[in-house]
Amino acid sequence: MSASPPPWSRHLEPGTDPATVDLLEGRSLPLAWATGWRSEPARRVLRDGDGAWTTADELRSRTEAVARRLRGAGLVPGDRVLLSGPTSVASAVAHVAVLRAGLVGVPINPACARRELEGIIADARPGGAIIDDDQVRRWVGELVPDAVVTSLDVDLPDGPTVRLDDADPDDPALLPYTSGTTGAPKGVPLSHGNLLASATAVRIAWRWRPRDRLILCLPLFHMHGMGVGLHGTLLAGASAVLHAGFDPEQVLVDAAAGATLFFGVPTMYGRLVEAAGAERLGSLRLCVSGSAPLSADLHRTIGQRCGQVVLERYGMTETVMLVSNPVAGERRPGTVGIPLPGVEVRLADPDGEILVRGPNVFSGYLDRPDVNAAAFTPDGWFRTGDIGRFDADGYLSIVGRAKELIITGGYNVYPREVEDVLRSHPMVIDVAVVGTPSVEWGEIVTAYIEAVDGFDEEAVLIWVADQVTHYKRPRILHRVEALPRNTLGKVLRHELYPPDRARGR
Q1: Helical H segments across 345-448, by residue range
Q2: Domain that includes residue 65, residue range
Q3: Helix, strand, or coil here: 382?
C-alpha cells in the first residue's frame, strides 16, 4: 500500500511527483544565483524606483568586487558583518556580496537606537559593517574599533581574487535578530541550507517565474523583504523594483507598468485599498500578505474594491517561510494556508501550539542553551509559540501566541479571536487584547483600541457582549492614539501597560 502524499504536495503543479522535489538543489543561494547570472548575463534583475536596470552580469560583477574588497580587508569566511541600509540596489549588492564571500550577514534596522545596537554588537561580535547611516556607522566604529566599517559604496581597496559561492548548506549565512515583540531580541543563526530551502519552497508554491516582476517596498533588514522578496526574486531569475519607502500611489503606478507581484503587510494593504486607482492592484498576478495578521474583513474588502484575492502566509525569523495559502486553490480569509514544500507542521497537545520541522528551520538561538532547551521538543520539533488549529481541509489558522493566552476565571481566551471580533466594529480602527492581572479572576480581558472620532465605549461594550461568550468579553477598554508597533506593523504587546485612566466592567 503506497504512502499518502504529504500535505504540502497540494502546492505542486499537476503531475509533479513530491519525491522529485529537492529543496537543496544548487547547494546554496549564492551558487544558484551566480549560475543563473552567467547563463543569462543581459537579463534585467534589479532597479531602484527611479533608476536604471541592473543586469544579471552587472550584479554578478558588482557583488564580486565588493566580496573581494571585504575579504581583502581581512575578513574571512564565518566572520559576521552588520548590514544596514534602505531597500535599494546598493543594499542588495552589499547583502549578496557578503553571502558570496562566505561571510555572515547581520541585518539591522537603520533606525535602531544606540542602546539596541550595543546589545546586538555585544551578542554578535561582528568583524565588519556596511552601514548607510553616518551616525550608526560612527557608533559601530566606536563600539568595535577593530572592525572593518564602510558605507554602502564599500570604499575599500580592491582585494585579490578569492573563491566565491563556496558555502555548504550547513555553513552559516545570516544572523538576524528576532523582532523583540515579546522581549529582548535573540540572534537567529540561519544556514545557507535554511535560506535555500525556504526560497525554493516559495518559488515552487507561488509559481515564481523569470517573467515575474516584484514591487518590493519591504525593509531588507527583515526576513519578509530580504529572505522572501530579494532571495526569491534572484533564485527565480525574476526582477524587482526596489523602493526605500511605501507610497501607495507608486505601487499602483508600478502595477500598471507591468509588475506582476506585490508583497506587503496588512497596514500597506489598508492604505492601498483606500488610494485612488486601487483597482490597479487587481492587475497583479499575485499579492502576498504576511508579518502580521490580515483581518478577514480587509481580505474581503480588497477583493471587492480591487478584484485581488490576497494570499496570506506564515513565517518566522527562525524558519523563514512555513505555511501559505495556495496559488492554484482557495485562499481562505483568516487562515495562513497549508504547509509549504518540505515543511512539517503539527499541533501540540493539549494547547495546540504549532510545532514545525524541515530544512528551512534553524538549529537554535545564538549562545542561548537555556532558551534552546525549551524551544525544541525532545524529538527535534521547533516550538513556534503560536497557537493554531487546522480546519477540515487542512488549512491552518493562528489563534494567538502561547505566551499571550489569557486565563480568566479558569477559561482560556486567545486574544486573536477577540481582536477579530472587535475589528469588525465600525468605530474600531485596530485593537490589541491582553490580560490584566486580577486577584479575583486571575486575569481580566483588556482591549487597547485605536478608534474613530466619536468612539462610544458603552456602545462597543454592549455590542461585543452579543458577539462572544461571556468569559471572552473585554471587561476593560483603553482608547489609545496608536498601538506600539515594530517596523512591519506587529504590535509590541510587552509595551502595553494600564494607563492612568481605565474603564472597567
Answers
A1: 369-375, 415-423
A2: 30-209+223-235
A3: strand
